[in-house]
Amino acid sequence: MPRHGSNLTQVDRKAVERERRMYMKDLFSRLAFLIPTRPSKVSLPELLDHAITHVKQSKERVCLTSGLNKKFMLYQVIDVLVEEAAQVVALSYSIVGDKIFYTLSVQAVSSRIGIETSRVQERLTELIFQTTC
Fold first, then answer.
1. Closest by CA position to 116, among listed 69, 81, 92
2. What positions does the domain BHLH occupy (predicted)?
3. In whole angstroms, what is the distance from residue 18 CA to residue 22 CA?
4. Which ranges of 35-91 does DSSP label H, i.e. alpha helix?
5. Are the C-beta atoms of residues 106 and 87 closer than 8 Å to each other?
6. pTM assigned to the model
7. What is the rounded distance in angstroms from the CA atom of residue 75 to the CA atom of residue 102?
8. 93-108 pLDDT, tens digit each
9. 98-102 contacts: CB < 8 A, separation 24 or more?
10. Where are the domains of the chain?
11. Residue 133 predicted with pLDDT over 50
């Protein structure tokens, strides 16, 4: 003998599951949009792998911003990197309005040793906020 409320519960479960799937699909779409380099069509496991790789690489990045009143020379930044066992493998810049954006690609001199990114960031922050030219 079927219970009167069981049919309604089954319909509710289907609706909840449909909403959950739509929510997850939306989250994965937003995640795919946030990953800078990704193939156009990837499976969900591949998307998650790309996201994991991107997060790991982001943890290794050091980003610094300086205003016009914070003067330092680019060679000083490179000196800090070299002292921290890093080598600059590529350097580029772009000018947007009155701003110059430098991008330095750096790798560890020895892959066994690596680079302590928190120490590099600390030293570069000291340089930028304490140097006067």
1. 81
2. 8-58
3. 6
4. 44-59, 74-83
5. yes
6. 0.47
7. 12
8. 888 887 778 888 888 7
9. 102/74
10. 6-58, 62-130
11. no
Measured between alpha carbons, how far is 20 from 16 in angstroms, rounded to an integer? 6
**Residues, the chain:** 133
- Which class is domain 6-58? few secondary structures
3-state secondary structure the chain: CCCCCHHHHHHHHHHHHHHHHHHHHHHHHHHHHHCCCCCCCCCHHHHHHHHHHHHHHHHCCCCCCCCCCCCCCHHHHHHHHHHCCEEEEEEEEEEECCEEEEEEEEEECCCCCCCCHHHHHHHHHHHHHHCCC
Among 87, 76, 93, 92, which Cα is nearest to 128's?
76
Q: Which two tokens stand for residue 17?
A: 């599951």
